[in-house]
Write a structure and sequence with these properties.
Elements: H1 11-34, H2 51-70, E1 77-79, E2 85-87, E3 124-129, E4 138-144, E5 153-158, H3 161-164, E6 169-174, E7 182-187, H4 195-210, E8 217-222, E9 225-230, H5 231-237, H6 240-247, E10 248-249, E11 262-264, E12 270-273, H7 274-280, E13 296-298, E14 336-339, H8 349-352
Antiparallel strand pairs: 1-2, 3-7, 4-5, 5-6, 6-7, 8-9, 9-10, 11-12, 13-14
The structure holds a DNA duplex (14 and 14 nucleotides).
Length: about 350
DNA sequence: TACATTTGACCACT
DNA sequence: AGTGGTCAAATGTA
């Protein structure tokens, strides 16, 4: 069931999957070194792809898969300096549940207190991104000036906290070193299911990736299923639901799933089949995948809650939800083009796959 | 009217 | 006491 998000998978298993992918990547890098460079003179369309090109393509898809695994706050974990994914201890978010005896209707200020709760057993996933957009719809609930930091920290919760009890939260803050980027820390997991955000996210991914060159596949992991879609196909499909349905294929539901289902390449052509992909990445197919929506967003920097709050008087807001930190339900393709950096340290593909072209 | 943001207050933790 | 996270009243916009 694509885009389903119920039934989580332990972060440790996701971490194991990512680590396996890292090993696959390293192996491919080594193998790539033994291959001669692709011939320059010939047009690639007039000859079968050489081994180096196939490997490059495989690497690209692998990177995409890893990006997906780590590209959402849904997955608790971090990437260490070596690029290895490590899961962060998972626990229920104590902040989500209203404390017993607390009245929500009362106008008196009583509460379960706040306090510095970061780093105390809560799952977190920190990353740096050039935009606050990540495909989810967030609602800002606070902002604080942080000690020894020139930029305030903004606090967001998932818009669907109330209607679906989604406990996902995030904190954003401009990077001190590079104010054009944001440090974004995610807490909790998205348990919401909102087609107006998730599926357009996929479209956004596709459209954005389409202008990005080699990585224009989207892979959306949901419980028991993976959606792999090619951007050009999605663009042609028009309706997100049908696109997702047509392009969905199960991964893990039948041992690596749905043999014969194509994985589409950036060129719009079949890249490989699931069984081939499974063989390529080893036993990744045995790893369960929790809900994850590939982060993607319009390129235009919408300074959601950080810079905007300087303007007093609640200037930012506005009932249409287009304000700070929100993600439009129907992002226009023209504004797309940003792909949230996955796994924190592998935003730059060249850095991640450091072999000579 | 509904919904989002702003912002001061509150509270837990160190 | 200082700091950071969250609440909720006030406020703004469509």
């Amino acid at each position: 069931m694509p885009f389903s998000s119920e039934g989580g998978v332990p972060a440790e298993r996701v971490a194991a999957a990512v680590n396996d992918l890292v090993e696959v990547r390293d192996g491919l890098v080594r193998l790539r070194g033994f291959l001669p460079p692709p011939p320059q003179a010939e047009q690639s369309s007039s000859r079968p792809p050489c081994a180096a090109e196939l490997m490059d393509a495989t690497m690209s898809k692998l990177m995409s898969a890893m990006a997906t695994l780590g590209g959402s706050g849904d997955i608790a974990g971090e990437v260490d300096a070596a690029g290895r994914w490590t899961s962060v201890a998972e626990s229920a978010d104590p902040m989500v549940v209203r404390r017993e005896g607390e009245s929500s209707a009362g106008r008196t200020r009583r509460r379960r207190g706040g306090g510095s709760r970061s780093g105390r057993g809560r799952s977190s996933n920190k990353r740096v991104a050039a935009t606050l957009e990540d495909g989810h719809v967030w609602r800002k609930y606070g902002q604080k000036d942080i000690q020894n930091s020139p930029y305030p920290r903004s606090y967001y919760r998932c818009t669907h906290k109330l209607d679906q009890g989604c406990g996902a939260r995030r904190q954003t803050q401009r990077c001190e070193a590079d104010p054009s980027n944001y440090d974004i820390t995610y807490y909790g997991e998205h348990t919401c299911r909102d087609p107006s955000t998730i599926i357009p996210t996929a479209i956004a991914n596709a459209a954005g990736a389409a202008s990005d060159g080699p990585n224009n596949n989207i892979i959306s992991f949901a419980t028991g299923g993976v959606v792999v879609a090619n951007s050009s196909r999605l663009a042609r499909e028009g309706t997100t639901t049908s696109a997702a349905t047509q392009l969905s294929s199960s991964w893990g539901t039948s041992g690596g799933g749905g043999g014969g289902d194509d994985v589409f390449s950036s060129s719009g052509e079949r890249f490989m089949q699931w069984d081939e992909l499974a063989a390529a990445v080893g036993h990744v197919s045995s790893v369960g995948v929790t809900s994850s929506t590939v982060g993607s967003a319009p390129a235009a920097e919408n300074d959601g809650g950080n810079g905007d709050t300087a303007a007093g008087g609640g200037g930012g807001g506005g009932g249409d939800g287009g304000g700070a930190g929100s993600f439009p339900s129907s992002p226009s393709a023209g504004s797309l083009g940003f792909v949230v950096g996955p796994l924190g340290s592998i935003e730059d593909v060249d850095d991640f796959f450091p072999f000579d072209p």
